[in-house]
Specification:
The structure is a single chain. By secondary structure, the protein is α/β, with parallel strands linked by helices. 41% of the residues lie in helices and 25% in strands. It has a 5-stranded parallel sheet, with helices on both faces. Helix 6 crosses helix 8.
């Protein structure tokens, strides 16, 4: 996962970064609201880890501005606050969890794994998050059209099995052999994978 960590305590930030990197996550660290805003504007993330009280602002206000900009990235707040109204506001903005300081950083890893890791699918150099439909090739986000994304998800979820044309037709807006062939060609080109045409039976994404 690509994670943006906003935490102004250098020691805690470095500890969290170390543990996340050990779990093969990619982490960008920000130590201020301004840094976090710049990073979120220039990059795409699978998860935000946001402190609430910072010298130059408030993590909840940052999430509010991100949501206003139609950024749906899942968010976990790291906070020493026990204020119920702040927690309610955070959840209203779409926060998926809170973790209260002081905490064992291992607990944070457990929470992330429980909420995300089990959903991530992978194939060769590709990772796919069914919830957000984010596809990464060698860590870089690749944009597939809605139809292409649906077809890839169906093939990936049935990896090693032949998926019939009729089943893939369900992913199309307008059903035709040509539309299906075009979508499959674009998927192969964008993701750099082989999708086999099993004549008379359907299509196969071979099991690794």
């Amino acid at each position: 996962m690509n994670i943006l960590l906003l935490e102004d305590d250098p020691t805690l930030s470095e500890t969290i970064q170390y543990l996340l990197l050990k779990e093969n996550h990619c982490v960008d660290a920000a130590y201020s609201i301004e840094e976090a805003e710049i990073l979120s504007f220039n990059n795409s993330y699978d998860l935000y880890l946001l402190d609430i009280n910072l010298p130059d602002g408030n993590g909840i206000e940052l999430l509010s501005s991100l949501r206003f900009a139609e950024d749906p990235t899942p968010t976990i707040f790291i906070t020493a606050l026990t204020d119920i109204s702040s927690m309610i506001k955070g959840f209203e903005l779409g926060a998926i969890d809170y973790i209260k300081k002081p905490f064992d950083p291992i607990e944070l890893l457990i929470r992330i794994q429980a909420k995300f890791q089990k959903n991530i699918m992978s194939y060769e150099h590709i990772t796919y998050d069914p919830q957000s439909r984010i596809i990464r090739v060698n860590g870089q986000i690749v944009d597939l059209a809605n139809v292409q994304s649906k077809i890839f998800e169906k093939l990936l979820s049935r990896c090693g099995e032949i998926v019939t044309k009729e089943e893939l037709y369900e992913c199309l807006d307008h059903i035709s052999d040509t539309a299906l062939r075009v979508a499959l060609t674009k998927i192969k080109q964008k993701l750099g994978i082989e999708i086999k045409n099993i004549r008379g039976r359907g299509y196969l994404l071979e099991k690794l």
